[in-house]
């Protein structure tokens, strides 16, 4: 089974070069302060920790990977492509918002099996999270994986199929737990 992944770039798998050797919290503070000159030099961005190795494992396991850019312009998206190639990320389309579109619109257009994005902490950003911008009727079709901004994706499973249920209790367990509760309730009444 080929799993279709949409992975957000900036803050999720790419970061400013000044974040290298810093803790995640320091990286967030740098982004909030805006004082690190590398924050706006997107062509100089670097992978967050082991992001390249993780995405390569997913690609090797047959995942189809597309990337979601925070940029809109074709020149900036081309810069993103250059950064991904330079660092050895697996090939994949880079999607960007069109004029008047939200991140949610892009995700709806793509309809991936799994959306991997960061929590936009430096932007105080629940409003920036793409999954929250998706129409409620479409949300059940997409597994959302939210990672801490600048925290990377190293902690996620190596198998793309495991991402489909990551963070969820498997259905069989829920059914079993529900039937166990029913059995206990029945036993108490008799």
Weakly predicted, low-confidence segments: 170-190
What is the approximate shape?
Answer: globular
Number of strands: 7
Beta-strand residue percentage: 5-15%
Walk me through what this model shows.
By secondary structure, the chain is α/β, with parallel strands linked by helices. 34% of the residues lie in helices and 14% in strands. The strands form two sheets. The chain has a five-stranded parallel sheet. Strands 2-3 form a two-stranded antiparallel ribbon. Strand 4, helix 3 and strand 5 (94-95) form a beta-alpha-beta unit. The radius of gyration is 19 Å and the shape is globular. The relative contact order is 0.18. The model is unreliable at 170-190 (pLDDT under 50).
Name its key features.
five-stranded parallel beta sheet; 7 strands; disordered C terminus; 190 residues; alpha/beta; two-stranded antiparallel sheet; 6 helices
Layout of helices and strands, plus pairs?
Blueprint: E1 4-8, E2 14-15, H1 24-33, E3 46-47, H2 51-60, E4 64-68, H3 74-87, E5 94-95, H4 103-110, E6 114-118, E7 143-147, H5 160-163, H6 171-189
Overview in brief:
This protein is of the alpha/beta class and 190 residues long. The protein is 34% helix and 14% strand.
